[in-house]
Amino acid sequence: MTCEYSREEYLKRIQQLGFMTDDIRLFLNTHPRCDEALCALKRYILLERAAKKQYEENYGSLTLEAVGQKERYDWIDGPWPWERED
Amino acid sequence: MWTYEKKLQYPVKICNTNAALAKAIISQFGGPDGELAASMRYLSQRYSMPYNEVIATLTDIGTEELAHMEMICAIVHQLTKNLKPEQIKAQGFADYYVDHTLGLWPQAASGAPFTATVFQSKGDPITDLHENMAAEQKARTTYDNILRLTDDPDVLEPIRFLREREIVHYQRFGEALRIVQDNMDSRNFYAFNPSFDVRK
Q1: Which of B45, B64, B130, B177 has the fewest CB atoms within 10 Å, i.e. the most exposed one?
Q2: What are the boundaries of each domain within chain A?
Q3: Which residue of chain A has the CA closest to B56?
Q4: What is the SS3 assignment for A5?
């Protein structure tokens, strides 16, 4: 699958979806019986997983899970998260 | 255990260096109300916490603080990237540079090294959660102070995100405190320490 977005745009999408799962999970920790939040968490987990999969097929692995799917060991590839691409 | 994801929680992309600003922002790495202290505080407090909702909250917020620490380090790194000796001198960075070059080291803006003495793990749920709510407010104030020191939108954006997270975490710790209090003697919350005294 080819990617129509730049690496940066794709990463931003993953960061947005990841933020949703982070924030909803915090809410659920203190509201564990909120069905609406649980439903939203499940939805965003799926969306984040799909976005990560597409990113990782086109760019580098974000997780060990993805490294396992690659022919070449790409965990050592930059850029690292704190590096600004010029 | 933990696993690493090769991404920042929120993007950091800073075009212009500013060593003087980096020296202020590094306080949120190793300073008294910084992200490293926040993470160590919450992750340390988990072991004596008797309520599952609160253990989960400490775990997840303690983990998120590590991601915030990485964002702060990315900001400091990008603000000081490829600085020339003349810039280091002109921007008041020589005293940091002489010990750490352009490496990241957890210290306060004052230069005081990171220390566990800035936080508590008291082994009493009510005490610890009040500590955490205060910690989130102290970090929020620090971010407010940083926001007054710059008008660089590349820095303002991620700092505003981090400031907002302090407010959300404060809210969650407030709810956690309420959960603890709901489990206690409503006539006297402080009658016993639920992580130490066994209720008859």
Answers
A1: B130
A2: 7-61
A3: A29
A4: coil
A24 near A18, Cβ under 8 Å?
no
CATH code of B19-182, in short, is 1.20.1260.10
Q: Is the peptide bond before B125 cis (omega within 30 degrees of 0)?
A: no
Q: Which residues of B touch A26 (CB under 8 A)?
A: 57, 60-61, 64, 168-169, 172
Nearest by CB: A11 against B7, B64, B169 = B7
Mean pLDDT of A20-26: 98
Query: Taking the domains of chain B in order of start, what are their residue ranges?
Result: 19-182
Are A84 and B13 a contacting pair at CB < 8 A?
Answer: yes
Nearest C-alpha of chain A: how many angstroms from B116?
25
What is the model's pLDDT at position A86? 66
Q: What ipTM describes this predicted complex?
A: 0.94
Determine what percent of chain B is predicted with pLDDT higher than 90. 91
